Predict the structure.
Amino acid sequence: MTALALVGAGCGSEIEVAQDDPLHRGAVLFRERCSGCHTLEAAASQGSKPARQLSGGERTNGPNFNTRGESYEDVLYAIQNGGFSGAIMPANIVVGEDAEVVSRFLAEYAGRETPDSSSAGGDPTANDSDDPTAPQE
């Protein structure tokens, strides 16, 4: 049991959302249900894509939500329908109020970094996307 605790502590990542924040539950659910494929530091989730890999790869490499912002409506749709492509994300990975709180959490915390902000000292809150549907600050 001690060894398991040390292995977990060695990861060095903790959920960044305060426990008294209503979105903390969304961060916990995201880490439990979504971190196998998706990356988001606020939820201490690495996903399946190697660190620093920006391009696509394996089918299980879900979007890196450190750099990709999402709206509440889009996240809820993706959760309920298995993403947008229907390729691999399971539909209803969380349901009901759990789906809603994960959607609110992701809408608030996703997209806080630009792809090169960690290496070039860029503004982690900037959204330099050319996509007109991308969330704007």
Observations:
- Helices lie at 2-10, 24-34, 72-81, 96-109, 117-120.
- Residues 1-12, 117-137 have pLDDT under 50 and may be disordered.
